[in-house]
TrEMBL record:
Family of the protein in this entry: Belongs to the PPR family. P subfamily.
Alphabetically ordered keywords of this record: Repeat
Protein name (Swiss-Prot/TrEMBL): Pentacotripeptide-repeat region of PRORP domain-containing protein
PPR repeat segments: 9-43, 44-78, 79-113, 114-148, 149-183, 184-218, 219-253, 254-288
InterPro entries on file: PPR_P_subfamily, PPR_rpt, TPR-like_helical_dom_sf
Source organism, top-level taxon: Eukaryota
Lineage: Eukaryota, Viridiplantae, Streptophyta, Embryophyta, Tracheophyta
PANTHER family, per database record: MITOCHONDRIAL GROUP I INTRON SPLICING FACTOR CCM1, PENTACOTRIPEPTIDE-REPEAT REGION OF PRORP DOMAIN-CONTAINING PROTEIN
Length: 344
């Protein structure tokens, strides 16, 4: 642009700042902002809002508010995007209560909250484990005439499932259906995982079938939840069948898939099958982590256990307390103590 004599504008600078912010390069974004000022161009509300959003996403709330204060000092009126950026940014760093207080001030200044605004606060409270606060905001949202969308319900369902409030999660799912909203893969995944953790594989399987029937494709997260659920019930036949289905559908098995299956097979004494899966995992370039090694060490073969322990160290993995508990206290082969090994 410069070589062809094309003048740089506020719009072109805003685009550059946005690009650097999306890449997480706030130093470059700040440098472009300074260059913009040096060129005699006046930043607008979009410039400041984009820069604030970048700092919030990096967790630098102090810098974000410095940008906001500078904008106000320049007598630039904040936009809805500005307000939503501040609310979302505070919620993401665990300051949801502060975000809600600021929302009240923004409303006094004429800001009208939208679905996105409430979704940010609901998500923030759920991340902090404040279920009641999230529900209160959800009710306020409905009472104010703002209709919850798929993101709202998915956020609630996910949060309720993670806090073992499956009943509330199913209530949200039913509300979605009554309003004609379709669950997405994320919502189904949360529900399936919740029922799997409660060892209710019947309901989990029904939801899995429903997911497929409505035209959605299960991803590795959904399959891993189901496989873990069957492993916990010692039903490795069902778990392995799901893994085969994953392969047939072209869904790659990841480290969690292999670790869960190997753990279940070892607990059933099927060492050969477990060994085959471990070899398959390595052949695909999937490297074991501490959890995988701990599972393998707990297989009952002491010589192999110590070899795997040394392999962990060679790979730079630090064994956790469970691993050392198995090795030192002899919690292998039915809990028989290690003979001739002194305890630390």
């Amino acid at each position: 642009m410069m070589s062809k004599g094309v003048s740089r504008t506020v719009v072109s600078y805003n685009s550059m700042i946005l690009g650097h912010c999306r890449q997480g390069n706030l130093d470059m974004a700040s440098r472009v902002f300074s260059e913009m000022l040096e060129m005699g161009l006046k930043p607008n509300v979009i410039t400041y809002s984009v820069l604030m959003d970048g700092y919030f996403k990096r967790g630098d709330t102090e810098y974000a508010f410095d940008v906001f204060d500078r904008m106000v000092d320049e007598n630039i009126v904040p936009s809805d995007f500005t307000y939503n950026t501040i609310i979302n940014g505070l919620c993401k760093v665990g300051r949801t209560s502060d975000a809600q207080d600021m929302l009240k001030k923004f409303v006094e200044n004429g800001f009208i909250p939208i679905c996105l605004t409430y979704n940010s606060i609901i998500d923030g409270y759920l991340r902090e484990g404040s279920i009641n606060s999230a529900l209160t905001v959800y009710r306020e949202m409905c009472e104010s005439g703002v209709s919850p969308n798929v993101v709202t319900y998915t956020t609630l369902i996910n949060g309720f499932c993670k806090s073992n409030n499956i009943g509330l999660a199913m209530k949200m799912r039913n509300e979605m259906k009554n309003k004609g909203l379709k669950l997405d893969v994320t919502a189904y995944c949360a529900l399936i995982d919740g029922f799997c953790k409660q060892r209710d594989m019947e309901t989990a399987s029904q939801l899995f079938s429903e997911l497929v029937e409505v035209g959605l494709s299960p991803n590795s997260v959904v399959y891993n939840s189901m496989i873990s659920g069957y492993r916990n019930l010692r039903n490795m036949e069902a778990a392995l069948n799901l893994q085969k289905r994953m392969v047939n559908e072209g869904i790659p098995c990841d480290l969690k898939t292999y670790t869960t299956l190997i753990d279940g097979l070892l607990k059933e004494g099927k060492l050969l099958l477990a060994s085959d899966l471990y070899s398959e995992m390595l052949a695909k370039g999937i490297m074991p982590d501490i959890i995988t090694f701990t599972v393998l060490i707990n297989e009952g073969n002491l010589q192999e256990a110590f070899r795997l322990h040394n392999e962990m160290l060679d790979k730079g993995l630090v064994p956790d307390d469970t691993t050392y508990d198995i090795l030192v206290n002899g919690k292998v082969n039915g809990g028989n103590p290690l003979s001739g090994v002194s305890r630390v």
